[in-house]
Structure formats: C-alpha cells, structure tokens
Amino acid sequence: MRFKRTSTVLGMAAAAALALSGCGGGGGTTGGGTASTDPNKVITAYSNEPQNPLLPANTNEVYGGRVVELLYEGLRAYDPSGKPINALAESIDSSDAQNWTIKVKKGSKFTNGEEVTAKTFVDSWNFAALSTNLQNNGSFFESVEGYDAVSAVTKSTTPDGKTTSTPAPKAQTMSGLVLKDDSTIQVKLAQPEADWSLRLGYSAFYPLPSAALKDPKAFGENPIGNGPYKMAKTGAWVHDQSISLVRNDDYNGPRKAKNGGVTFKFYTDPGPAYTDMQADNLDVTDVLPSNALKTFTSDFQGRNLIKPVALNATLNIPPYNPNFQGEAGKLRRQALSYAINREEICKVVFNGTRTPATEYTSPVLDGYSDKIPGNEVLKFDAAKAKDLWAQAEKIKPYDASKPLLIASNTDGGNKEWIDAVANGFKNNLGIQAEIQPFAKFAEVLNLRKSQSLPGLTRAGWQGDYPSLYNFLGPVWKTGASSNYEKFSYPEFDKLLQEGLAAKSTADANAKFNKAQEVLFKELPGLPLWYQTRPIVWSNNVVSAETGWNGAVLYYNIQAK
C-alpha cells in the first residue's frame, strides 16, 4: 500500500477479491434509513488497551491506531475506497518526484486553540524521525533526505546473542525537510519516488501541538488533536477499561462526525462483547468469536456487513529461535507451512470469512499476484511436510523438550484457529504445539519487540495506505518500524528500494513482487489467509461500514 493507486483500480481489485473469497454474504443493508437519528448521541465500540501512550508516530497497532485516527487530521485522508484526498494540504506538488512543495491550509487549529501551520508539520516530522525520541513509526520518514543522520543508532550484542540499538543521531533535523514560510514546506527525498505523497494520510505524518514535543509521555496519556473527535473532559482514558471521545465541533475536514462521540470499551474476549452486542449494550464490533462466524448474519439480520479488505494474517518465526536457524531451520520453516491446511481452516473455523493466502500482501491491492515463485509452500501437503522435517532432523535434531508455543492475544478470536494449526503440526510433524495466550495484544507486541518469544507468534497487517510496499517494507525490511523480530535480507531490501524508485506503478509492483520471492525463500513468517472482515451493529445505530483496509468508519455511524 504505498504506490500510486486510483480508486477505480482499487475498486475493481476489491470486487474481484470478493468473487474469489466465496464469502458471499452479510447483508450490508442500511437498516432503517427512515429512522430518526440523534447527532449528539455517543456510540460504543469494541476495542482493547492500546500498547503505548497515544502519539501518532509511536502508535503502530490497531487498538491505539483507531483512537489516534479519530483524534488527528493530517495533510491527506483516505476515502472509503482508499483514494487519497487532501485534508490540511492545500496542494502537494512535484515536477521531478524528488523535490516536493506542500502548501498547508490556513485557519486549522488543535482543540487547545493552537494553530496548525507548516512549522507544526516540520517539527512533528523531525520529532518522529529522531532516534532519541524512540518513535515506533520513525522509519516512515526514511525517504526524506537526511533521515539517516537523525535516525542513526549504534548497535551492540548482548551476552545472550541479542542485538540492541542505542540512539546516536548525527543531526537533530532532516536536511531534506525545510520550512519556507508559515504555510509552505519544501521536502527533498533521497531519490525520486512518484508515489510519496500517497503516504501522507498515514498517522505517522499527523501534526502535533507544541505541548507534545515538550512532554511526549504525559501528552500521550491525554492527547490534544485536530481531528473529528477529542478526548472527553473527564475520565477519558480509564486504563484497561475504556477510552471516551467526544465530537470536535470545530473540525471542518472530510471526516465530519455524524454522532456525538465514540466510547471504546475494552474486552479481553470477543464472547462477552458479542453478548453485549445482542443485548444492544455495545453498538459496533469488528471482532467476532469464532463460534459466531456461522450465525452472525442471522443473529444480526440487516445489521451486518462483510467485504474484502486490505488485511492479512501470518505466523511469524523468530530468527533467534534455535530450532529454526541454519539449513535445518529453513527446512523446518517449510515443513511448518506445508503442515497447515489453510483451506480447511478458512472453511471450517472461519466459515468462509477468510481466504487462503497466496503471498504476503492483499488481493485488494493493485499489483497483487497469486503466482509468486515459491508460493507453492502455502499449499497443504502432509507428505511433503513430513519429508522436509525428516531432512531437518538429519542435520540437527529438533529440541522437543517443550511444546512449540504460538503467542497470541485472546481478545481477537484466535484460539480456535491456533488450535487447528497446532493439531496440524502434531498430526503431520509429530511435535507438540499450543497457544501461549495473552489478554492484551500489547503484551504480545512487547514480547516481540524485546525479542523474548519462546516460540512463534500470530501476526497480521492492516494497510496504512494502498500499496504493496506498505505490506512489505514496514514489516520485513531491515530496521523497519514493525519488523519486531529483526529479520534482515539484503536482496529483499535492495528490491524494495528499486521498486520505490521505479518510474511507473507497474514497474514498482514488479519489483515488490520480485522481493516477495526472497520472502518465500527465507520464510520469516508464514502467510495464512486474507480477511474479509465481518462487522455487526446494534439496534441503537442506523448502520456501520468499513473502509478499504477494514477499519470501521466510526465517524460515519449515525445513532438513533
């Protein structure tokens, strides 16, 4: 999701993916369009405790992200089909795809009254990129000239073999980011990238008020934004319970709120949330328990929607796990993949709401291909799995002293499919495997970030902006923001860079798909399936919908 896209192409791809998924259903009706609505009523929505304080450049997980995206507005936004539209940008222009001139609209303010200017964006972006600020999304500024200097770190190896990084910036600001006047930013990239402006709707590029730069930690607990919502005056964030937002009546952008606010209620299990939905004690959820995937269309007749979105799932294999290192480890990673019956799991566990993966991105994206060389490893083949495992045993015996643990949050309805995958490993490879459960998604991310996983981990990616690159670079590139397991493949990095510098979208996609061939050789993670995200809503609201990447469009929900 990072290259030039048109809404027409994306829409055609999505329609094709729907036909491919065979999921059919859902109803997506508007549910009583003649019902009277209450624009001041607050709606309630499913969520979980965010991993970090709510700073845009430090939030790269879904539960914090859904709050950040409602609190802030950037230079651009994305319409429901994924088409970028200008928000705070008056214009974004370039004659050579390397030197960009951005004009910022005048008159926009944060909810504390501070004006949003070109300087606001320059200061916010430099803050995000500076390595000493430890912002998870800092690498999204990698294309700007001078990023390497401000993001510099020194690396060292701990006695137990782990690599640690210490911030050591060589500059405090990016040389390619220049403030021309109160409304003009000049950006010079390290190389021409024709699609660069497409990324500017992602949350890493949101502006921050001056208070955030002075005390980021305190600010993140009670953020001040400029988006369609703002934090409630009292009890806005009750940790491990809820986050309450109210409508920002001064907002005048493309995502004007149609309700009085959103209260995100935190659940550690989707079962109770589903019960609350049925009792109209919760207004919308995008996470359903597995046992409801066969009944949600009848349980919520006229109040459900399912469609293909830019969202995938993988099973990541940390490179620091001794059982999966070296030549034996590569054979075992292949064996694990062949031992997973994706088609059966999608049909039986997910009731057709998932489609078996054929690569590492998403079918709704322009450039998607199901013919990447090496992707045969995603086909279920018990005999092949056993043979590869046996070959690995001849090189280095597997340490079976403990079960192979698969780390996962329990709030996302993951236990059933992990049990199915574990049974596949047991039946086809003769090894014991089981879920390593966590109540919070943030707990899994923290283990991944500290390189402390005892086994494997479930993972997935929800698109930030519509490009193949967004599913590859931030996740698998050396040093990238969401490359928690610290995979590093020079050939893969080189192909990604060549794709970014390509002169056309078609040439770029060809490079990105070539880079996927490297992933299939190395198998750092096993693609599992694509998601056609189902959502349901209560009798308290008119309807609900998801955007191109599966995110619920909370601002569009009308309360009755």
| Morphology call | globular
* Average pLDDT number: 92
CATH architecture classification name of the domain at 72-214: Alpha-Beta Complex
Main sheet specs: 6 strands, mixed
What fraction of the residues are assigned to beta strands by DSSP? 15-25%
The CATH H-level superfamily of the domain at 72-214 is Dipeptide-binding Protein, Domain 1
Rg is: 23 Å
Ends: how far apart?
36 Å
Compute the number of helices.
Answer: 16
| Helix-residue proportion | 25-40%
Structural class: alpha+beta
CATH class categorisation of the domain at 72-214 = Alpha Beta
Q: What is the fold named in CATH at topology level of the domain at 72-214?
A: Dipeptide-binding Protein, domain 1
Beta strands, count = 22
Uncertain stretches: 1-33
Order of neighbouring strands in the sheet with most strands: 17-21-16-20-18-19
Task: Offer a quick outline of the entry.
The chain has 560 residues and is α+β, with helices and mostly antiparallel strands. The chain contains 16 helices and 22 strands. The strands form six sheets. It has a six-stranded mixed beta sheet, sandwiched between helices. Strands 1, 10, 11, 12 and 13 form a five-stranded mixed beta sheet that branches.
